[in-house]
């Protein structure tokens, strides 16, 4: 075989590799007109090399942010150094549909890319080669893992039955607010409330009915909260609400509204209407308190005064200290 035949054979298999490699290969001149367009790009764009040859890249693909891509490519031409893009910064350069069955949840192909300067015999950069890598599998796995971790973090601080904060997370929030009040001497109020005669509901209708009641009260708590209030399930049938930047008089209005809304509830369980009421206790933050538990104890005392006085009422606990 002659040298010419060897050279032709090498060019042939190089072209074959260029067309079949599982990455996108795009060569642009310095005016961003397409010179090379391999099989990967043809398959995903539906455009043949002949259709894109010498076409201005940004005319063909309007979804590409021209300013952004030029900021990536111009230094490659000027400095003769490679540049890279990753899907975490921008999901894709070319908006190709995702057809992989394993990552079917992704509508578009996530892409990483490498931008390489191509020089002539004199060392002048005349072209850019953009290599497109399909990283949809990695991106989908990462985003699903992050989403799952987010759900786990949410579950770790949420009460399963009521979807309010669980006691641990709620108390951590209370501690943070207590420290803030110690430092800045603002006013906040703590509300503790408890379902009246809850044991009677469980004994009469069963624990499933009790769960329905607990959920209904939690919904009522949510509906009566402001965006700054922090509510949690403190115990079995006991709820706690931190009323941030709220003095005792303002808190009384909010707590009474909650009491009345619960009193008006008609909770349907197995075609039976269940009626329940709340007993509530309020306590404002006091400067003498040295730890958050004193605040909880003060609100609890107000709650049990409401219980002792006949239930379905609100008591503001005023410490004599």
From TrEMBL:
Locate the transmembrane regions by residue number: none
Matching entries from PROSITE patterns are given as: GGDEF
Query: Annotated Gene Ontology MF terms?
Result: diguanylate cyclase activity
Q: Which Gene3D superfamilies match?
A: 3.30.70.270, PAS domain
Q: Which reaction does it catalyse?
A: 2 GTP = 3',3'-c-di-GMP + 2 diphosphate
Coiled-coil positions: 248-275
Organism of origin is: Rheinheimera muenzenbergensis
Q: Does the keyword Transferase apply?
A: yes
Give a Pfam family name. Answer: GGDEF
Official protein name in the record: diguanylate cyclase
Q: Which domain of life is it from?
A: Bacteria
Q: Its Enzyme Commission number? A: 2.7.7.65
The UniProt keyword set, sorted, is: Coiled coil, Nucleotidyltransferase, Transferase
CDD domains on file: GGDEF (cd01949), PAS (cd00130)
The UniProt entry, under InterPro entries, shows: Diguanylate_Cyclase, GGDEF_dom, Nucleotide_cyclase, PAS, PAS-like_dom_sf, PAS_4, Rev_trsase/Diguanyl_cyclase
């Amino acid at each position: 075989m002659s040298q010419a035949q060897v050279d032709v054979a090498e060019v042939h298999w190089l072209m074959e590799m260029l067309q079949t490699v599982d990455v996108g290969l795009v060569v642009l001149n310095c005016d961003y007109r397409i010179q090379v367009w391999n099989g990967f790009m043809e398959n995903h764009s539906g455009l043949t090399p002949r259709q894109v040859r010498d076409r201005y890249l940004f005319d063909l693909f309007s979804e590409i942010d021209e300013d952004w891509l030029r900021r990536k490519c111009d230094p490659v031409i000027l400095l003769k150094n490679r540049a890279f893009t990753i899907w975490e910064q921008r999901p894709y350069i070319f908006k190709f549909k995702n057809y992989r069955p394993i990552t079917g949840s992704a509508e578009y192909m996530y892409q990483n890319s490498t931008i390489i300067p191509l020089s002539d015999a004199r060392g002048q950069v005349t072209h850019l080669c953009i290599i497109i890598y399909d990283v949809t599998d990695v991106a989908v796995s990462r985003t699903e893992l992050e989403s799952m971790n987010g759900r786990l973090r949410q579950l770790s601080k949420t009460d399963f039955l009521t979807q309010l904060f669980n006691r641990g997370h709620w108390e951590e929030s209370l501690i943070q607010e207590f420290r803030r009040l110690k430092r800045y001497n603002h006013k906040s109020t703590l509300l503790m409330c408890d379902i009246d005669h809850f044991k009677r509901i469980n004994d009469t209708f069963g624990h499933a009915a009790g769960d329905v009641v607990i959920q209904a009260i939690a919904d009522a708590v949510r509906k009566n909260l402001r965006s700054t209030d922090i509510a949690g399930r403190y115990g079995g049938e006991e709820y706690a609400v931190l009323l941030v930047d709220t003095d005792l008089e303002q808190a009384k209005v909010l707590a009474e509204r909650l009491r009345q809304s619960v009193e008006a509830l008609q909770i349907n369980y197995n075609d039976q209407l269940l009626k329940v009421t709340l007993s509530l206790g309020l306590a404002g933050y006091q400067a003498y308190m040295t730890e958050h538990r004193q605040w909880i104890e003060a609100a609890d005392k107000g709650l049990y005064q409401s219980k002792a006085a006949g239930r379905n009422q609100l008591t503001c606990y005023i410490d004599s200290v």
